[in-house]
Write a structure and sequence with these properties.
- The complex is a heterodimer of chains A (about 80) and B (about 220).
- Chain A contains four helices and no strands.
- Chain A is mostly helical and about 80 residues long.
- Chain B is an all-alpha fold and about 220 residues long.
- Helix content of chain B is about 75%, strand content about 0%.
- Chain B is elongated, with a radius of gyration of 20 Å.
- Chain B starts with a helix and ends in a 5-residue tail after the last helix.
- Classes of the chains: A mainly alpha (about 80), B mainly alpha (about 220).
- At the A-B interface, helix 1 and helix 2 of A face helix 3, helix 4, helix 7, helix 8 and helix 10 of B.
């Protein structure tokens, strides 16, 4: 066996190993299960509400502003400028 | 932000900007920002699952352990000192949990008979070896190639555990020796030696199952 051959064999083994252990995606949704486990083990301290477990990017501030707007519109609609 | 952090990490460039991005992410994680943690899980779930599956070789166990890795990350993030990259720290948790789980599984399955068929018996060795090193364009060669890959998967499971973790981190995850040393908490010299010995052991196991030398 020449000096280069062990290196070639190593390269072949490396390629074969990489191909044999190709990447797979998890079948179960990891994030949801992790959130569930953390919620259970922290007795609801973390991930205890719907905000942190959803994928939505709506912030608390935005929803608060929208609610204020709705209340203001309702107030004016029913108050002095309201429809009779 | 986490995407930028990952892009920086994957590029292998240790820029000040990259370090700042990671530091900000860690700050949010330590402050128990659940959204930051969601992003972290999404960003790392495939990598962690890939590593765990390769180490354990069992999908159901790997799925459960991947979840445990992130639960541990969430619990222990406050102890992260920033002495290594965040990814290295996560990998270290994954490797340690894999070791514990493998030990548990060994005890649980002790004495159980291997249920897999001996693939090598159905496989002409020269055909199988050829199928993996050459371009596969015939169905019979593709099948032979898959059988060789199955032999490698079974063989890697038989490689000494301490060699296997270094070998997978090096040859499959393609991490540098220094990072493997940080993950396994071993000296770099020991890591190199374990990779060398792991490769030799794997080659011997594969060759024995194939019934011929790999060239």
């Amino acid at each position: 066996m020449s000096e280069e051959e062990p290196e070639k064999v190593d390269d072949a083994m490396r390629a074969l190993l990489k191909r044999s252990l190709e990447e797979h995606a998890p079948e179960q949704p990891v994030l949801r299960e992790v959130q569930r486990k953390i919620r259970q083990r922290s007795k609801g301290k973390f991930y205890g509400d719907g905000w942190s477990t959803t994928n939505q990017r709506v912030s608390y501030a935005l929803v608060a502003v929208m609610m204020l707007l709705v209340v203001a519109i309702a107030y004016f609609a029913m108050g002095p400028m309201g429809v009779r | 932000m986490i995407d930028e952090t990952l892009a920086w990490r994957d590029s292998g460039q240790y820029s000040v900007e990259g370090l700042e991005l990671e530091a900000k992410l860690i700050e949010r994680l330590i402050a128990r920002d659940e959204r930051a943690f969601n992003d972290l899980v999404r960003a790392y779930e495939r990598r962690v699952f890939g590593l765990v599956l390769r180490m354990l070789g069992q999908r159901a166990e790997a799925e459960d352990l991947t979840q445990e890795v992130f639960v541990q990350v969430f619990k222990a993030i406050g102890t992260f000192r920033g002495e290594s990259k965040l990814s290295t720290w996560i990998y270290r948790i994954a490797v340690n949990l894999c070791k514990n789980r493998a030990k548990y599984l060994r005890v649980r399955h002790a004495g159980e008979q291997d249920q897999l068929d001996d693939v090598a018996e159905r496989l002409p060795p020269s055909q199988a070896r050829h199928a993996n090193v050459a371009q596969v364009d015939r169905p019979d060669e593709a099948v032979a190639g898959r059988q060789v890959e199955e032999i490698v998967r079974r063989s890697i499971a038989e490689v000494d555990e301490s060699f296997r973790e270094c070998l997978i981190l090096c040859d499959v995850e393609e991490l540098p020796y220094e990072e493997i040393a940080e993950i396994t908490q071993l000296p770099v010299g020991t890591v190199k030696s374990r990779i060398f010995r792991g490769r030799a052991q794997l080659r011997e196991l594969v060759e024995r199952k194939l019934g011929e030398k790999i060239r």
